[in-house]
Structure formats: C-alpha cells, structure tokens
Amino acid sequence: MVNRFWQTYRTVLFCRLFANYFALILIPVIVAAVLTNFFVVRLIEHDAERLNNTIMQHFSEQTDDTFASLERDMVNMLSTASIKNFSRTSGDPAELTQHYERIHSLMQQMNKLDSEHLVYKSFLYFASEDLVIDGNTYNSKDEYFQEQYLIKDTDIPSYFANFTGKKSMVFTKPHTVYERPPFTRDIVSTHLNTAMLMSYPFNSASPDVYLVVNLDLNKLREQLGIQEKWVTDTMLVDSSGSVLISNGSSELQPDSFAAMLHSNQEQTLFLNPDKKALSFTKSRFNDTWYYVSMINLSALMKPASTIRTMTFVLLAIFIVVGGVVSFYLSRRLYNPIHEIKTGLESQHKHLDDAPGSYCGNEFDKIKRFSRSLISKNKELIQTVSGMFPIVQEQFIARVLFGEYRDSLSIEYYAKEIAFPYKPVSAATVLCIDIQYYSPFAQQLSETSKSFMLAELKENIRKLSPALIWVCQTHSQQLSCVLHHEDNRLCDPTETADVIKMLLEHPYYKASIGIGKTVHSVAALHQSYNDALSMLHYKSLHTGAEICSEQRVWKERSAGDSFLSSQEVNRIFNRYKAGDCKNLLQSVFDLLDAGMRSNANAHQMKSLGTDVLNTWARAIESERNDFDISVHSELFAAINRCVTWEELRQTFREIHGVLFRTTEAPDRKQQFDEILDYIRTHYNEELSIEYFAEQMNMSAGHFSRMFKEEVGEKYVEYIAKYRISKAKQFLLETDLKIDDIAEQIGYWGRNSFIRNFRRYEGITPAKYRTIHQS
C-alpha cells in the first residue's frame, strides 16, 4: 500500500515537474527555435550585406585613394619648371646643354612615378616634337615604341588615338605590352596594361606634351581581390555595364547591370537574372565607375543551414534533458519533504497557536511552519527598518569620502537601502569640526560626547529634513549636505549662520567649513574636500565660527608659520646663557603678534611646533636626557589646543617640563671641590669633559665658568700646579727628570721639559743646579 502510494506520488511529481519544465523552458525554447529558423536567414543576409558593404567601402576608398594619389603625382610632374621651360633648341651649345639638363631632370622625376605600386612604366609624349622621355632614356617616338615600349600591333591604333586634344586623367583601353631586352627580338614576357593620360598645358586644346602612366592590370586585379570566401569575384565596371577590370572569371551582362543601377540602391544585396548575388559601390574617383562584388549564396547561407540543424538538435536535447531531470527530481524530491515533515512534527508544540492535537499531511505542516517564519521575518524587517537611518548616514559619508563617484554605483547602493535622492541637483557641503575645551576634553566620557553629537545632528535635521543630509564623517566632525531648492536659491552662508547658533556651547568650540557648490551627488566629494580645506583656516578664538572662502581671503594673515633663522639662533643663545625665563616670554610675544595679525590656528600651531622643536634641539645639545615619548606628547599637546589661552598655558607647562629649575648648589663650593680633586689627583689624567659632565655642562661652558670662578683657564691652572709640584720634587728629592715627569702626570720627559721652560724660563736640570748651589 505504501509502496503503491509512493510510486503514484512520484509519478505525479514527475508530471508536475515536467509540465513546469515544459511551460517555463521548453515553450520558450520552441518559440526561440521557430523564430531563429524564421529570421536567421534574413539576419545573416543583413549582417553579410553590412560586412560586405564595409569591406567594399574600405576597398573602394583604398583603390580610389591610389588613383587620386597617382593623379596628384601626375599634376605635380606636369607643373614642374622643367616642363614649363622645355622648348625646342636652336643649336646653340649653351641652350643645348640647358636642354639636356632639363631632359635629365624630367627623367629623374619619371623614375619617382615609376616607383608607384601599380605603375608599369610612365613617359612624356611630346606632341609637337619627335621625342619621348621615360625614367631610363629619351628617344624618338618610333624608336621608343619599337624598342622601349613595344605594343601589340592590334592595340596600336586605339592606343595612339589617345594623343589628341585635351586629356585630363583619361584612361585608355587595355592593351598588351611585350617585354624584351633592348635591340633584340626575343620577347621575354607580356603585360596587359591600361594607361592614364594627362596633357599639358592643362586647359589647352592643343597640348604640347602628354604624361602617360601605364598601369599593370595584373596588379590592379590583385588589388581588386577581397579575401572573403563567400566573395567569388570583384570587378571594376563602368556605367554602361562594361567590365574594365575583373579579379575572377565571372561574366556580367551589361544590360542587367544597367537595369540594376536604376532599380537598386548602392551597397544593397540583390539577385541578378542568373541567380547570382551582387553588390556595387560607386567610385569617388570617377563618377562613371562602380566596384561590383559577386556573392556565393550557398557559402553565404551555410551558417543559416547549420544554425537550423543545431536548433533542432538543441530542441531534442532540451526535451531529453528535461525528462531525465524531472524523473531524477521526482525520485529525490520526497526525501527532503519527508525530513522536513518529520522535523516539524517534533517541534509542532512550539508552532501551534492553540493547544490540542495536530492533524494534517506534510504539506499542511510545512505551510504552518512557513506562516511562523513569515511572522518572525516581519519582526526582523522591523528591526532592520530601524537601522536604515544609520545605514543611510554611512552611505552619505561614503559618498563624501569619494568611495562612490559615479552615478551608477550611487544609484545602485541608494536603491539597496531605499535612500531617495536626486542625481542631478545643486548641493553644498558644510563640515562642522568639534573641539572640546581642555577643561572638558578629559572630563567628558565618550558616551557623553556621542550623545551630544547625536543631539546636534537631530537639531540640524529639524531645520529642513528634506533639504539637509547630516552624517558623522569622523569622531569629532559632522558633515551637512545642503540641497538647493528648485524654485529658489538656498544660500549656504545663511544656512551656516543658522547652524552656528546651534553650535554655541560652553563645552566645545565648533568651526563650520563651507565647500563649493556642486551640481550632482557624484561630485559631493569635491565640495566636501573644499569644506575640509576651509577648516584649515579656523581660528583660536572661542565660540562657533564660519570658515568660508570669502572670510578666509578677507581675514587672511601674512604671518609666518615657522621660525626664522635669527629666532632660532636667539633661542640657542638664550639657552646657553641660562636665560630660560625669556624663552617663554618670547613665545608669548609671538602669540601676541599672531593674535594681532589674526593668524589662524594652523599657522600658530605650526609656529608653536617649530618653537618646541628648537627648544628640544637646544636641550639635546647640552643634555643627554632626550626622551622621544615625552617630546611626542608635548607636540600632541600643542595640536590639541583650541584657544589662544590654551596655547599659552600649554607652553607654560612645556617650559616647566623642559627647563625644570631645581635648587642649584653653591657654584663656588662646586669649583672648590674640583680644585681639591685636582690637587689630590694632579698626577692622573684630568680631562675637561669629565668635570663638564659632572656639572651637566658642555666643555666650552665649563671652561668659561672655571675661568670666572678661579681666575685662570682650566688648562693653565693644572699646568702651573704640576710645575709647582715638580719644583718641590727637584729641590727636595734626588729623583731623575724622567721619574719627576711621571710623578706629576706627564707622559714623557720632553713634554715636561717644554712646559717647565715655558713657565720658569729654564730647564728642570738648570733649575735644580741653580737653587741647590
């Protein structure tokens, strides 16, 4: 019974799944297959026609440019002075020499024409003279056409008929040219050429000279070739339908082509009576020329037949795959349904709204659980909706930071968080910088500061909820996006004045930076950066203030934000002289000068940092107790200052830290102790650096102080005391001079004798002899 129910239910599932698959996938696939088979041929014809037109257009432009370039070269050739001044010679040697020079000049220019890709040979044909000039030689007409440019006999009459009347870029009929070595009768090869003629003077009905440029038709045919497998032939045809040049062996009926010109548009694909597809493009170089391409329809339509076959194969594959997938899913679909039902049965007491036994099949159980999930989902949606203001505020902050700069990303994220906005509207950013006064900076907790900022944001929003966006961009910085109304302009300065009244607070100083007005939400980061740059000019006065570009230029200060070299030297000199009190007073003088010149906070803090750095360098030069952590905290204290008074108080504290005044011992007593030490240890090494370090002085400072207290230099005092002890040893003992030098602290005999003679005027031995006798 159960197995029969299972098999029946699986069959029902299979039918339902396959029916859904048929409705959702197979029907669109069948419709797509029919539409593909119906429209694919036309689409392929259209695409092939467009591709063929593009290729033909490019090909015709390239060929026309070649002919146009050749025409320019021919005009330039005939415009040269050598042609204009070419005349019959009278036999005079000077004229004859000049005549040959002109001929050689023309030969050189003809060589340039011969270098063109399509040019087989070019020459000048003089109508009034028996002369032909090409790039290699000049001959009489008969000799030239018999030896240099031999034309097939049947083509000679039509060829020479062209050298009459005015010719302006006239093309001759094709003619055969024999290639043979000069003065021989052995024909090496033949060429099928056509010639381009131009006469000079240009507007004369009886020109003096014809420029003939013979084109190699074989090269022309190569250039006419289009490397597409469905193009069987490419031809150059005149308006009468005569084929001038053909790349293949196809034939074109002149009557059918003339009818085609009248009945069809340029660059359209059509069938001629021979069931051949044709397409033509008119030449820009010659209005009577047309470029014609012949299309192999079977090759062209091969993709269409391939696509048709593939559509039927794919349709069969879809049907087979749909049946297999439906059968597989019908076998496995009941397992998760049964597992869900079993799991819900164990939890039905938590899902039932009312007590009592539960009855129903597995689908009823799943429906009941779904209703419970929907209820919980509504609660979750309400929770998420309460978070939308926070998410939207964060979105505004990211726009201001420049993380979203293109309108597409802004539109996408705004839609995700249901944030309404106008992509294009004038807006201005106001940045509000909050700095807590020093008495309250440490007293207020972070929670209190957060509540104060939240209250401030809410008060600003109440001014105009629809026109002002407010967000917190940093821990102590708010940003307001002020939108200008469509019907009237909302002045950012007036709005800043209103917000300024909300910012008057005894706990903190607020500065409002006004950015430039932008005209799209994507450009708000530019206005935000301008507002931040305006905050760079905030002052050290108490109370709220507005920093706008107009105010900055009006109240700009010319004061320096760094110490001059004279001030630095003055600080070093005062410190060395021990005048630490005036160091603080000099800072107060700088602050007073900055206040009078209305200097901004950045300038004065930079100046204060420079002063502190100079103090630290001065102390470091005299003491070895430099502490990086302490000095870093001192620099940070300057940056935390909000008002002029806080800056003064900070420097008082810094001065007290750096120049601590302790009870100095009696200086005379210190030097008396040093003198006692010298008298006791006169025979040891007594360096001035040792005593200077003991008194926390530099060597130079110690030397100056020793002279002031003792009356003579440190080095002189030690030398004289040692000499006095030496005289005592000389008179009271029998020690040798070397031993006495060692006893009084000299390293050698010579230095002892030299110093003794310096102070006593005689050597130690002489001194002993004189006084002992």
Automatic annotation (TrEMBL):
What Pfam families has UniProt attached to this entry? GGDEF_2 (PF17853), HTH_18 (PF12833)
**Keyword Magnesium carried by entry:** no
Question: Transmembrane stretches, by residue range?
Answer: 20-41, 310-329
Keywords in UniProt for this one? DNA-binding, Membrane, Transcription, Transcription regulation, Transmembrane, Transmembrane helix
Q: List, alphabetically, the PANTHER family matched.
A: ARAC-FAMILY TRANSCRIPTIONAL REGULATOR, HTH-TYPE TRANSCRIPTIONAL ACTIVATOR RHAS
Q: Highest lineage ranks of the organism?
A: Bacteria, Bacillati, Bacillota, Bacilli, Bacillales
Residue limits of the HTH araC/xylS-type domain? 672-770
**Keyword hit for Secreted:** no
Q: What is this protein called?
A: Helix-turn-helix domain-containing protein
| Domain of life of the native organism | Bacteria
InterPro entries named among the record's database cross-references? CdaR_GGDEF, Homeodomain-like_sf, HTH_AraC, HTH_AraC-typ_CS
Q: Which organism is it from?
A: Paenibacillus chibensis
